[in-house]
Amino acid sequence: MFKNALVYRIEAFDPPSLADLDQRLNQARFVECAASQPESVGWAAPRGDRHDALAESIAGQWVFRLCIETKAVPGSVVKAQLQVQLDATEKQTGRRPKGRTARELKEAVVHALLPRAFPKRNDVMVWLDARAGMLWVGTANVKRADAVVTRLIELMGGGLKLELLQTELSPASAMSAWLVDREAPTGFSIDRDCELKQPDSEKATVRYARHTLDIDEVAGHIGQGKLPTQLALTWAGRVSFVLTETLALKKIELLDGVLEGAGIDAAASGKDDDGFDADVAIATGELRQMLPALIDALGGLHQRQVVAAGNGTGPATAPWDT
Q: Could you report the per-residue pLDDT of 230-252, keeping only the tens digit for each?
């Protein structure tokens, strides 16, 4: 369900019915780019069929999908066509366009070439876990995740307030301690991939891939001032991922043990699908157990979010969950 993810805490939520939410999403349904349109963004059916619902509830979890389609003309093509236009104008008028006139010519060139450009489409899955008070966005890019969240908040009509998950310990400082002490946090194991970066203008970087990290060299780099920006971890032998300095989760993978004996009765749910319900139920079931353990490993929720949650033991039972 997710290869990458950023998590937001739900600070306030006035949940609509699933049917009402589906209607709201339908008002911003995805439509393919028009011939000269550089970008189109909208909500699409999580199951992939354009006739399916835009809001799905599976095992108590709400799932949505935002579709982003872009069309871009290669810069080299634009430059070549623009030169032709500039040369032609200079030949006709005796003056080579500059400044605003040149920019307008460039925009006209791009507009003319867009109908011939191939569209590129990206999907971002969104999972709303109302019981845990968390929203998962399927990207490790903070800017893109914020754009997705903004659209969702607008659709909720102000009834949803979110804040990017924050912990007492920064991921960089926690990862540094684990590597120096050569001891993973409780419930986790440290895997064989890591990136260390010097936090200065030069950004000197050292990367380890498929390499043991329980060595003096790694601790030496940290002692010289480099900070971990990425570290591969496995939780309970069930979920592997790469933790980043921004608290993003990358390369999420459910391990073989999770799939053995797991499943969901799709017929009982009233949907004869190709495993979509099972995939969602298994993935959300594992990740919603892993997240509190990761928050604990990072010192718990940031104090400000603890106050909002109502306790200091991790994600609180959400007051809107009835």
A: 999 999 999 999 999 999 999 99
